[in-house]
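Support request, please re-run this one:
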Amino acid sequence: MAAPLLDKLRAIVGAAHVLGGVELSPYVIDGRTPLAAVFPGSAEEVAAVVAFAAEASVPVVAWGGGTASSVGMPPPRAGVVVVLTRLRAIVEHEPGDLTVTAQAGVTLGELQTALRARGQWLSLDPPDAERATLGGVLAANASGPRRHLYGTARDSLIGVTVVTADSSLVRGGGRVVKNVAGYDLPKLFIGSYGTLGVIVEATLKLRPVPDEERLVGVRFERLKDAGAAARALVGSDLIPSAVDLLDGAAAAALGLDDAPATLVVGFDGLGEQVDWQVTQLAALVAGGGGRGVASLPPSAWSRLARASHNAFGTPAAVMTLSVLPSVVADVMEQGTAAARHRGLVTAWSAHAGVGIVTGAVRADGDRQDPATLAAVLAEWRAAARAGGGHASLTWAPLAVKEALPVWDDAGPAGRIMQRIKAQLDPRNLLNPGRFVAGI
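Re-run finished. Output below.
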């Protein structure tokens, strides 16, 4: 079947834009090699590829920069990877309306550079912005430290164009901030990991570039003191754009002094406002064990979201935990103790103000036992549940995924998601079996 499939795909997008054989190595997921990788040059070509795949009963996996390709269960069967990097045009930028429409394959780095040249920016800062594409960021609902103030992709999306499982080109929302009342269908595709449709274009609202932006770090001798300072900051009159908590390993990866804990805080706005807020922060943390407020280089912004992951050259596994902000430091300490008990080392970082915690783990040596890793990660998930939340594997080898579910139990929400999936993709062709509740 491979040769006829490749020939048909070449007829749709051109021979130069179809990969097969050994060229597919960058698109292998958990040991599963796709049948082909295709690079469509228009939304219509995406629709044609999806139509052919549906006719051939071949799964379709949408692919942007590949930054979230490891997230999810192993693919149950080989399919066609639809790589959207040729769709990278900025279709329309209306500075007066503070909106932009762009194709899904443009990287966040490219988009931000173009917008900042005109004094505006998109308030999303996911990891690997130079690789992550707009469509991928929306599909994964990826975000970074600035989500504390500016929210996630759901807060920026105005309209979206997707190719659905029946190859229809569907547009939802609009190109202005105020749209007619009704169901907000575009946001249904946020965080759907390509299981409901292939995003090909999106319209988002923008913000003016702030006059000044500053990132500062405060060192603490105890993680719990840093956590208490984060809670005090969130409850204060200050308006930080980021409130992140790092343990010693994650702080070292960010290039900070080796301290047991570091609270990293971002501010933006007018220069006088930023100066005043930094001064107030210093006063707020002084009585809680904080040791000074040190300015961090601008480059730290882009590395902050992956600080725990980057603490190790190659971590054995990475888990994201969503918990109540009040228990972030406690969960980090519990996770560290659980790993240490089994001879593993960890690195932790958190968007402390919103309760998003990332833990990376590896063996203290070369031996990475899957059963031991799975046991530790199961304890982390239990800690997340006890903290009012849930946990999912962000990255793990296949042996660990086989021993521990990637996704937490979604409960009643999972059943609703399954019904939506059945309505929009009844033949189960779009990234099947990899998402929550087996979607």
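The first strand starts at residue 18 and ends at 19. Residues 61 and 431 are 5 Å apart (CA to CA).
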